[in-house]
Amino acid sequence: MSKIKDPSLKEAGRLKVEWARTRMPVLMQLKQSYEKEKPLKGFVIGGGLHVTKETAVLAEALQAAGAEFSLAASNPLSTQDDVAAFLVSEGIDVYAWRGMSKDEYYWAIEQVAEKNPDIIVDDGGDLTLVMLQKGKKPLGGCEETTTGIVRARAMASQGKLTFPLMAVNDAETKWDFDNVYGTGQSALDGIIRATNVLLAGKTVVVSGYGHVGRGIANRARGMGAEVVVTEVSAIRALRARMDGFRVTNMIEAAPIGDIFITATGDKAVIREEHFKLMKDGAILANAGHFNVEIDVNALESLAKAKKEIRPNNVEYDLGGKKLYLIAEGRLVNLAAAEGHPSEVMDMSFANQFLSVLYLKENGKKLAPGVYTIPKEQDEQVALLKLKSMGITIDTLTDEQVKYLTGFEEGT
Ligand code: ADE
Predict the structure, then answer these.
(1) One fold for 7-174+341-388 and 182-335
(2) Which atom of ligand 1 is closest in space to residue 331's alpha carbon?
(3) Which CATH number fits domain 182-335: 3.30.70.100, 3.40.50.720, 3.30.230.10, 2.60.40.1180?
(4) Ligand 1 surroundings by CB, under 6 angstroms
(5) pLDDT, tens digit, for every residue of 231-287?
């Protein structure tokens, strides 16, 4: 029982997934290690994930390990309908299609929650919230993204989180790679697909200098843009400055930016006062999880007319100038492109897979709360990734171990 756009798209989806498998060696190896033993046999796993070719490879790995997996979208605009069709043809229940309304989106999540999953794999916290609202108590959950972790910690601090949640996002092999290089590349990919604009010679304003903002700023600079960073954290602002970026506030940045990219996780970062100061032709995109960072309602109110000028690119005519909003202000890398490349999702989803297995073994023993990923898991993922890249590293000699664990030896 699934609800997707069009089952006949499955062959196109199959080809995409075939391609992704060749770029996700760590996850493929984990799948191979567990498909005989099937440690997840009898386990119901519910996903609230972007329906992409990379998610399909995770779904296959979970299925091969014995799990019964079902999947709801993680965003109304991020579903790849051909991949959804392929997954359904593989016996996975999918509730997702591109362009869902808000009500349809929550309906889809409810379908997964109603399967009473033993473990959930979430991206952004909506499935977690619906599970809690319905009084469901799974063995545990795994959360993929920064926004989801922030929400989970808020739930935990208010005593509302009733099960253990693994902070997959905070694994070093996740956020130091996926958030930085994955979003850095794919956010620009989304903007370029929607505009075909030349980045060289442009002023790109990046709002937020966390892992995601840092990735975007560096990639934009690499393509010849002048990058201006806005921040609310003094430490991150300082880091951006010492990384060589110009740092200012949004009011100062608004009149000089050609392209604005939000990556803060907070709401109304670009709002009416800023739109009013922007140049004719400025492009607005969001790389954060939710569509709250650019105040689209304010833009709608200011506009005298609007039209879709290209796919994922709406021109707002403010009278005297035009602003261009990419993918409705939704996460640009997934709504206007294909999300992070498979190579980096390989590590993120290897962490999801191993966290599911960890919860299967340890979930019953864990009190409700947010848990960091075991260090050994991070090391395992990094080593497997290096191995797949043909890279060997040094190991400490006995003398070095002694030095590092002692204190007597100085100059
Ligand atoms: N989040 C960011 N990129 C993604 C991708 N390619 N698949 C699933 N989730 C993602």
Answers:
(1) yes
(2) 2
(3) 3.40.50.720
(4) 49-50, 52, 54-55, 334, 339-340, 345
(5) 999 999 999 999 999 999 999 999 999 999 999 999 999 999 999 999 999 999 999
Cα separation of 256 and 259, whole Å?
A: 9
* Nearest atom in ligand 1 to 341's CA: 6
Decide if 32 contacts 390 (C-beta within 8 A): no
In this structure, which residue's CA is closest to atom 9 in ligand 1? 50
Say how many Å lie between the CA of residue 353 and the centre of ligand 1.
Answer: 15
Q: How far apart are CA 48 and CA 123, in angstroms?
A: 6
Cα–Cα nearest to 118, from 372, 359, 370: 359
pTM surpassing 0.85?
A: yes
Indicate the class that CATH gives domain 7-174+341-388.
Answer: alpha beta
Amino acid symbol at 80: Q
Q: How far is CA 17 from the centre of its chain?
A: 18
Residue among 345, 351, 353 to mutate when testing ligand 1 (max atoms within 8 A of CB): 345
Q: Count CB neighbours of 302 within 10 A.
A: 16
Domain boundaries, the chain: 7-174+341-388, 182-335
Which residues touch 235 (CB under 8 Å, ≥6 apart)? none
